[in-house]
Specification:
The protein has helices spanning 32-50, 107-115, 152-168, 195-209, 260-265, 276-286, 291-294; strands at residues 5-10, 13-18, 23-25, 30-31, 56-59, 69-71, 84-88, 98-102, 118-123, 139-146, 174-177, 183-188, 214-215, 227-230, 240-241. The protein has 295 residues and is an alpha+beta fold. The chain folds into two domains: 5-135, DNA primase, PRIM domain; 136-274, Alpha-Beta Plaits. The chain starts with a strand and ends with a helix. This is Bifunctional non-homologous end joining protein LigD.
């Protein structure tokens, strides 16, 4: 079947969108057109969290039930106006010592990637400057991953304790769902090049204080029923799913910023599952709950 293309202009940039009726989330019948609509409408709060950050995307050309691939290198066929930065990637699985990353900072670039079925957007905890040079990390992250039968409910309990520890150190924490089964806690960071060392110290401390609830190591056999505090996401070579990114789950769930009241009140995991429609409504009501992280 011939590919259907639709020419559009986005903020003065010309794009050609393809196969808009293709279903990318079969369970909900959610199409590529709906993916594009979501990313276009969420862009005002999403783009500040992508600004200056080298982008890694997870592409699902045949939908969430088909194959996928990660893409770090900006596509060769990208428009000339998509910003890029060439950065060292030693130890790359593709044997690239240098990778040319896309830096998505405008609506047209975001739409370009959404049209590639780049459902998931992942970024590091650091930015590049105007010349494309890597800056020191500006964000601290703790990735809270529940080991079954633990769920996000247990993550909420751990996050509340983490919040107090960070506050005692003068750091303000902001929670979001991963859009999958866990959650992340972010804090603006201005304390030098090694948030990973700090995060590791905090995670190990909490694992020692709460051994029945928390682990700080990846070993699967010790994770059952506990929450892994993954401090290693602060490694500059790693990325975390961006706030407001879709996830490739059965339904179009989103990595969603939360209020602390929602963490206090959470009793069932399904209370913190939000779809694209839910998130658009939340932003209408609350604005960007993660705004201080992007500033």
């Amino acid at each position: 079947m011939a590919e259907t293309r639709v020419p559009v202009t986005v903020d003065g940039r010309r794009l050609s969108l393809s196969n808009l009726d293709k279903v990318l989330y079969p369970q909900d019948g959610f199409t590529k057109a709906e993916v594009l609509d979501y990313y276009s409408r969420i862009a005002p709060v999403l783009l500040p969290h992508l600004r200056g950050r080298p982008l890694t995307v997870k592409r699902y050309p045949n939908g969430v039930e088909g194959g996928f691939f990660f893409e770090k290198n900006a596509p060769a066929h990208r428009p000339s106006w998509v910003r890029t930065a060439k950065l060292p990637t030693p130890g790359s699985s593709k044997d690239r010592e240098i990778t040319e990353f896309a830096i998505v900072e405008d609506l047209a670039s975001l739409v370009f990637f959404a049209n590639l079925a780049a459902l998931e957007l992942h970024v590091p905890m650091w930015r590049v400057d105007d010349r494309g040079r890597a800056l020191e990390p500006d964000t601290l992250v703790f990735d809270l991953d529940p080991g079954p039968p633990a769920t996000i409910v247990e993550c909420c309990r751990v996050a509340r304790v983490l919040r107090e520890l960070l506050a005692a150190d003068g750091l303000t924490a902001y929670p979001k769902t991963s859009g999958s089964k866990g959650m992340q806690l972010y804090a603006p960071w201005d304390r030098g090049p090694d948030p990973s060392g700090y995060a590791k110290q905090i995670a190990r401390h909490l694992a020692a204080e709460m051994p029945d609830q928390v682990v700080s190591v990846m070993t699967k056999k010790v994770r059952q029923g506990k929450v892994l505090i993954d401090w290693s996401q602060n490694n500059p070579a790693k990325t975390t799913v961006a706030p407001y990114s879709l996830r490739a789950r059965a339904t179009p769930t989103v990595s969603t910023p939360l209020t602390w009241a929602e963490l206090e009140d959470c009793e069932h995991a399904d209370e913190l599952v939000f779809t694209s429609a839910d998130v658009l409504a939340r932003v209408e009501e609350h604005g960007d709950l993660f705004g201080p992280v992007a500033s």
